[in-house]
Fold these 2 entries.
Entry 1:
Amino acid sequence: MYRRLVGLVLLFGCSLAHAEVGPRYLYQVSCAARVDRFDVATGRKTNSVDLAKRTGKVRLIPDAEGALEVCLSNRATFDRDKSVLYVLAPKLAHPKEDGTSDYRILGFSVPALTLTSEVAAGDNLDHPPQFEVRSGGVVSIDGEPPKSDLAFSKFGPGRHELVNRVLERSGDRTLVRLLTDGPLDIGVADSGTMTFVRMENLPLTTVENIHLSPGGTHVLVEEVVKGDDSRSRKKTGRLLLYDAQTGRAAKTLSEPAIIKLYFRGISPLGKVLYDLLADYRFVDLRVRFPAVSVVRTASEDFPQPAVFFSDK
Amino acid sequence: MPAIRVTANVVGVTPDPKVPLSYQWNVTLVFVGGACAHSLNRRISHPEINATTQTNTLTIPFSQIRGGELTISVTVRVGNVLLKARSEKLQVVGTNPSTAALMNMVITNDAFKKLMRLESGLRQFRTPSCPLFSGDNLGGVGICQITSPSPTDDQVWSWKENLKAGLLFYKAKEVVARAYPRHVRDGQEFKNLVKEYNDKRVAKAKPEAPLKPLPIDLPDYTPEQLERDTVRGYNGYAGGLHEYRVKVDAAGLLVVNVDAGGNKGSAVWEVISTADRIAEYDRRNIPANHRGDPAYVDDVYNQASF
């Protein structure tokens, strides 16, 4: 058995045998090779590590001088069995003149974040490669890019083809955007029951402000208002938690403190991390979620930070 | 580097005119950056000069353009007497190029001239004794604010060498910018956008008039776009963001110009506004010291040329 891990991954370090038990620590991995560790129970940041300084005498992650042009720690993937974080690191802090880069995959133990492995991941590549972590910690390069849409005709109740874009996946559940001409149309497809449920009465929002919960049981929606120009949107601080089985809002929260922060991830313990640089805040949804990873399907070369959970 | 001529006069002793004198010279020139803002305490030494002359003058044979503290020692034997003299704490300073001098350099690119003005105000030196080191404390220096790769000692003290490096760096960024459209075309994100566009186009077609997926190209940059993206690259493509991105509509769908025959489509480049650029930096949590100037390209074009 092996887990296929692509894109930005949220992984959880242990299963929730009881509702009260869950991975206590949330790790955020940014493209600057910075790993921040948060204690979800206390809502505090407990450590902040520069991975570039954790590779011993040989610098395996380059120094970014000036503008950070490439993601120094991409495709963060947590192997919960081995408690090892894998990142894709370019050999240079800038693409070469032809736009390509050379890569290696580095493994770091969690929570110590000491280097455990180094694997070549390809040279002269136009885009950062995908990789998989198989059981036993074996890394395999060049996985297929994540599928960007769903074969919608297989899903009830309608079972007809609709043009769609897959946003996130967790377990059997897939957060899908239907590319209709009207307002934003979002739903959750369940490949276990082969059903699709639309989220009803969405507030004004954007695809960047909609997030699948671990296990795909809920969808968190951030309300926005129009900004200064036609394209920009501003968060209002109003959060709606939709039940993915009914498509209805199960809970509404008002959290003005997150307006200028960015969503980073939902913990199985129901805590949502928002942050921007040194500023951070947890929002407590007071809902427990299955400890199942959430996979973002966008394959950006320079993605937003990835998060994973661990009990260490 | 201007010639420096040193003279040693023997005083208090009368040399025998039949015996030629031999003057042993030692010259050091050392720059220690401690007193210069943002120098990161950089230290630059000219190779020590040792020379012998039969006359009492020496034109110091500098082999490199350098500044800093100059120390000159001379030794001469007159009969049985060994005479020594030393001049120290002399300062060799730098001079900023005049606009006329810069105009004499072969710089055909107006954008690059404006870029130089933005980067340094056309100055190599902050003060006569201090090169203009960059305020971001990344070791950048000089008229082109050469930062990466780390500037050489020549590039610190010679504005001509600094300019040469700046032009090479600009050319290298031009190569990157020229390759960028192909890089995007071949990327998964663009392929997904094209697929979505065509899926929607085919789905919307009436059964009696079915449509095929449209071949959609992403054009290369125009000369103006290439120049602007090169200028952006000079400051760095922070967050992997270039000056332009593929245009999508408010719903996030690809904007396509379809040709008159309806057989081909062309995607469109759009400038990333400063506000959007900052929002992307925020979304990606890029540290403030790794963002560069979000408005760099406009800031360059707002400068005067020379």
Entry 2:
Amino acid sequence: MKNWRKHLGLLLPLLVIVGMVLWPTVTGSVSNRESVFTILKAIALASSLNILLGYTGYVSFGHIVFFGFGGYVGLYLVNDLGWSIWTGMLMGGIASAILAFVLGKAILRLRGAYFALATIGINEAMKAFINNFDLFGGPIGMTLNFSVYKAYGGAAQALNMAFFIMAGLAAIALVISHLVRTSKFGLGLQAIREDEDAAEVMGVIAPNAKTWAYVLSALIPGMVGVLFFFKNGNVEPHVAFPLHASIELLVMVMLGGQGTVLGPIMGAFAYQGMRGYFVTSDFFKDIQLSVSGVLLLLIVLFIPAGAIGWLRHRVPALRRVLQ
Amino acid sequence: MQQINLLLTSLPDGILLGFVYGVVAMGLTLIWGVMNVINLSHGPIIALGMFSTFILFIRMDINPYLGLILVAVLGLLLGILIYFIAVHRVINAPHLSSLLATFSVNMIIIGIGTAIFTTSPYNVDFNLGSFPLGKTTVLGTRLVAALIAIFVTGGLYFFLYRTRPGKYIRAVANNRSAAELMGIPSTRILALSFGLGTMLAAVSGALIATFFPFNILSGGNYELKSFVIGVLGGLGNPVGALFGGLILGILEGVIPAFLETSWVPVIEFGLFVLILLVRPSGLFGEKK
């Protein structure tokens, strides 16, 4: 039972996921299910980004490239080669991880803003390349053959299944995030975040550690991409690689608190909830982007550690639970 | 032979456009050079420049080139305002803070802009005629824009190297604390630099509006181009941006002669990442 306390920080995040799965299941409302699906997707993506951003301290502005690339690969396998969604998802995740490994070897040598710029460049280059890549449908993208859903008991059943898989992916992302945070590997990453040169002197092999952090943070987005496009039924270059979605992920991690397991969940929840409210409200719907902008600015200027970081700082008693 | 013909028709346009691209990126790279901040509100400010030309010319019937002066003054003031509201507090914070702070300014401008102008395309119906050059015709508006771009670059060079505030800016860019010890009011100089950066962005937008249609989101595209140009010419080297812009303009003129136009961004951004990896200080920058 010695290790029991060490994993206390995982309890709250997983409870949140369970609660979110139960809510639409109990109420039986499809619109609830769809909004929870969006939040779960945001949680999975933001938690993955947090491994690179929060633990390692590298700001990626193009993290959505793994979502789009993995999604394209997986959907191609499911649609054109007739693979099942499970193997398709697995391959999408692996494809993204391999891409991250190759890219990481090159661009993780860059530091600070140069790395951020390079990730923007990679996202745009990939989007432009897919636009010209005929195997993946070029600018038109790919549309899922409707008969694919039959294997899962029709479209309605497949959508329902996609919801539960997404919950599973979000939970896996959180477990990975927690394991990285509590492991020696994660300690090395956090040392890199604080001072990369000092970390190397202390024996952290920074290039390797950074590359593996990048690979880990790319795995889940690839799988989420496959599932999302499978559920959507089609994929197009500008839907797969939206630069603003990368920045939204940064905002979520920042809102909740970078470098914590719970932070990205709260951030994803708050950001998606806020957006949903502003888009539908009569008063805010025209300038919802501006209102979000003002809120983001206030947080960046006055609470840079995010909600969880702030709470941990103010209420030390909560530190064991809020991780 | 057909390709040579195609090249001869598209190259002059590419070169003229390249000068304007230079000014598009100049503001971004100036701000980067002085305060190590990547200004993510660059794109929307370019768009604001475009719309000011639209309002001045269509609604008030002021000549777009005369209107540039007004756009420049407004751009300068807006930049100083943005600096004190959003940037000043995070100037020494990690990069993420300043990136997100300027991005929130981006969201605010886009949000208000969308509410006022919607996202439908606008066009400034302004014509200076055209004249033949070899096998191709050159639009008058593009030629004038290129000349203004060269003039603006010259002016910026003169300002940075020959005037006192310009020298202050270079001193602060070089070493802020040493500059402060010499009695340079660094906060005011940083605000001025940010103002100059947004001024250049707004002016470039106003120039582009005279020959391309635009909407409130168009700036994003030019912001991405600015990153590429900035890295080509050396981030933090405003005059180098003109060369970076020319390279990009020439690339956009040359590539369509050999490949489909849709390959242009693949090559542009591929080159961008490559240069970042090999020479992060840019093709013309000094080796660090």
